Amino acid sequence: MEILIASNLTKIYGKDDTAVTAVNHIDLTIHKGEFTAIVGASGSGKSTLLHLLGGVDTPTEGQVIIEGENIYSLKDEKRSILRRRKIGFIFQTYNLIPVLTVRENIIMPVLLDGNKVDDKEVDNLIELLGLTERKNHLPNQLSGGQQQRVAIGRAVINKPSIIIADEPTGNLDKKNSEEIMSLLMKAVRENGQTLVLVTHEMDIASMADRIIHLEDGNIVSDTAK
Amino acid sequence: MNKLSLLTFRYMKVNFKRTITTCIGVIISTVLIYIIFSVGYSLYFSETEEEYKDYTLMCDAIIECDGDTAKEIVYSADYYGKNNNKAEVELSYAWAVSSDKKVNMIYVNDFLAIPRPLKIIKGTFPKNDNSVMLPEWYKYNGINLIGAKFDPKSGQAVDTPNAKVVSGYYGSDFHIPSSRQEIYMMFDGAIYSNYGDRVFDSDKVFVFVTFKDGNDIREKLDKLKEVYGITSTELSEYAEVYYNPESDLTYATFRAFLLILAFVGIVVAIVIIRNAFNISVHTRSRDYGILRCIGMSRKQIIIIILEEAFVISIIGLLIGIILGHGLSVYVFGLFKKILGLSEFFRIRIIPEAIILSAVAVMIATFYSMISPVEKLYKINPINSLRMTDEYKLDKKKLKANRGRLIGKLFGVEAGYAYKNILRDKKRFLLLTVSLTIWTILATTVLTTISAADKSIYDMTAPPCVYDGQIDSYDLSEAKYMADAVDSTGEVKSTFMKGIAMISIKENDFKTNYTCYGFPEKVYNEFADISDGYVDDENKPGVLIFDNNDKEPGDILCGNLYVSGEIKDFNRFAEVFTRYSSFSLSSSSFSRTFIYNIEDEKKIFKNVKPDIYWYEIMVEFKNENKHPEFDKLINDGGYYFSDYLLLYKSMMSSLKVVKTAVITFLIFIFVLYMINTVNTNSSEMILRKKEINILRTIGMSKKQVDKMLYLEGIIISIIATVIGNIFGCIAGNGIIYFMLFSGQEEGEFAFSLHIDILGILFIIVLLLLINIFAVWITKPEEEDIVLE
């Protein structure tokens, strides 16, 4: 079942002589429950593609349809709601809110929706992430791996249908990387969530159901297992 | 409050210093605005009819009666009131005005006359809407109060049980060393002294009476009517007093001044709060980017920042209003002292002032949020994470050649500093304009104060040799006093002169009347010391009256105009002093026509003076010590106008004004300093990465500092140049238009003025502000880290 369709997706930075095409007329369909890895050299446009798919950047051309909704035709308010409900973001640099504790960071998407926090559910998630002892700590009191686990918690708290991860293990050592990937794989395999992940590590990419190879903003190969 | 308030309060807590700084900004602005509203409203309410209804100082009642009865009442009050016995009706005092000569016009052109507004007494005396009475003059200006004792320490007359009659003449420019003290009236007829008795010649006299005991006025009035056989129905229980808008020019000026201050307060509040929140937005833009990525809408982000603004303004308002009220008590006290306000002028808690201050500060706060909110609204999640879109560069301004010359002249850092200033037009304008406003304000104030200083010096400088004067309304008494003063042995010289006011009759004007009679010898003396003539159009012996605003029936004061160059200033002054009430200003010599009383008949061939009095000018051997003379004055119950005391009193008033104004300037200065530091702080946050790059590629710490200091200095120079030019214009404008509004041309004592020292002081201060702002915000050594 198709969950995300990108068609003719283009992103050009700059103008005229200085124009750089980061994503070049890409057509892409992602299926529900699929783990897709996007790989490519630095500057190949993989992060830009990921941001466009996640609705945090604006394409120069083309459209992205998530569960039947063209996200770039939506107004900001609705697109924000879609992001918080249907998409979970994970960044290489964690991007946690420094003034909030572990628990507060995780529940932020729930609060944004104005919903009541299910404490039990949150505690279970924190336990699953192995952060129970750290739940009242601020991000700067955590290791890189722990921060990324918080980011995963924040990404999955609303049970989004798509998790978008931009090199989530890029700043982590091997052990932490494995732990993070294990958590993400669990989300895909056990919860049926869709994972789109950018990486330049082939070990990580090899875990995916599908590997898309990007070069100069173009898809040069799209391989499914 | 909502679930996201968690973030709001967390940010406030984490950025505690910034929260406190912003809060202080709001507090200071609130204090400033509240003081202005509170003082303004308190003054206003003290002036209202409501206040005056209870203000029985003027009188308890006004009685219309014939001259004989009036005389009886006044004399009864005079003698029995004084001796505290025998009076059938216990009057404290009474004074009378004749009714056949209605008061036609009166105006005050005295800035310091603000607290003593002229009021129309409705339905009593007189019935003309344009008519006015002088309810407070006797209290404030001893010179207007015949027979009143004058307290030199307070500068006010002391109420006496003696009958009091307001003389139909003006205040006191000759003894108070500033023409600002002048109060000038024109009458359609004189109000006579009851000592002169002429007031009682009329069949219709109004008597202003005050009872010893203010209770049961109605009964006392009935008794008074019965005792004196008054049948008139024109008996008012209370003197109703109404506001006279026509004499309100000085009030309007004062209110405009307060409004300008309020405006400045609001602008300052906006600038500070705006800056503080801009910094918050800059520093948190990455956080906001993350929040946007995880699904926070623009609206929700804006709510966070608005909520923060709301909380800060509420805290700031509460503290500000409490502090503001405390300070406004002090400020109002200063105003009372400066303006000589009476006791019933009091500061009060005025809901309007609180509401207006709150509204003004709230508006200022939320208006200040427009720019940060706009920035937030445009925030792009990804760019915020990358922190790439924070600085908008004006490419046109940053063309390669810009700053090259400056760079060659002052080094590469100066060239770079110049480019930095040009790169962000808004920031440059914000900083420069705010500093320019302060400079204008400071220059304006310093120019005005400096001109006032100079004016006082001019007015009291030699050759005005006399140390004071005694006034008398009786020639034989005046002569007696002059002899008595001489006999004390403490006086170096005395000079007696008479002063007249001349009633020009309607027919006189119809025939284009010119008052002849100026003595030949006087003319000759003036001709001798000037370049040979007194007035182009007039032959010797002609006295030209100042006919401004003349109307049939007006009393005019004659001004002697001397044209041409004065050959010997000291001698001129000496002659002038001898023949006139001496008033010297830097711009004009003018004042009341004075003549030697012995020449009266010669001078006034066609006009009869309606009122005159005598002044015994006194020069002491030792101006600080003259006990015999003091005893003579006290025993005789005379009023001696001591120039030295008045000068000191004036200086003291000026000192209070200076203190108040300079305090205000310092207040604003501190706010601007906070603002400049804030602006620089946000600049440093924005440029941190760039400065670190410069450091990485080899720019030394010293070079970075030099570049940043030069930026501050360039802005200071621009602000001081523009600010001082406009400040000098504004200051002189105030001198010319504001302080002397209502005065006739040529009468002002202040001269147009440029205060060089003040300007230099401001330049140094502005340089220091910017250098301090850079010093406190410039990056430290450990900041050389590329993120």
Number of domains as seen in the coordinates of chain A: 1
C-alpha Rg of chain B (nearest Å):
34 Å
Look at the helices and sheets of chain B and give the structural class: alpha+beta
CATH top level label of chain A = Alpha Beta
Radius of gyration of chain A: 17 Å
Residue fraction in strands of chain B: 5-15%
CATH fold-level label of chain A: Rossmann fold
Number of helices of chain B: 23
Biggest interface between chains: A-B, 32 and 27 residues
Helical coverage of chain A, percent range: 25-40%
* Total strand segments of chain B: 16
First-last Cα distance of chain B: 36 Å
Strand content of chain A: 25-35%
Oligomer: heterodimer
The major sheet of chain B is characterized as: 6 strands, antiparallel
Average pLDDT confidence of chain A is: 88
Attribute tags:
heterodimer; A: 225 residues; alpha/beta; Rossmann fold; four-stranded antiparallel β-sheet; 10 strands; B: 787 residues; alpha+beta; 4 domains; six-stranded antiparallel β-sheet; 16 strands; 53% helix; 10% strand
Topology (SSEs and partners):
The complex is a heterodimer of chains A (225) and B (787).
Chain A: E1 2-13, E2 20-31, E3 35-40, H1 46-54, E4 61-66, E5 69-70, H2 76-86, E6 87-90, H3 102-112, H4 119-129, H5 144-156, E7 162-166, H6 174-191, E8 194-198, H7 202-205, E9 210-215, E10 218-224
Parallel strand pairs in A: 3-8, 3-9, 6-7, 7-8
Antiparallel strand pairs in A: 1-2, 1-4, 4-5, 9-10
Helix pairs in contact in A: 3-5, 5-6
Chain B: H1 5-14, H2 16-46, H3 49-53, E1 61-65, H4 67-83, E2 91-98, E3 105-106, E4 119-121, H5 137-140, E5 149-151, E6 156-158, E7 185-186, E8 205-211, H6 217-228, E9 235-236, E10 241-243, H7 249-293, H8 298-339, H9 351-368, H10 370-377, H11 381-386, H12 404-410, H13 412-423, H14 425-460, E11 468-472, H15 475-487, E12 491-503, H16 506-510, H17 520-529, E13 555-556, H18 569-579, E14 594-595, H19 600-603, E15 609-620, H20 627-636, E16 640-642, H21 643-696, H22 701-738, H23 756-777
Antiparallel strand pairs in B: 1-8, 1-9, 2-8, 3-7, 4-10, 5-6, 11-15, 11-16, 12-13, 12-14, 12-15
Helix pairs in contact in B: 1-2, 1-8, 2-7, 2-8, 2-9, 7-8, 7-9, 7-10, 7-21, 8-9, 8-21, 12-13, 13-22, 14-21, 14-22, 14-23, 17-18, 21-23, 22-23
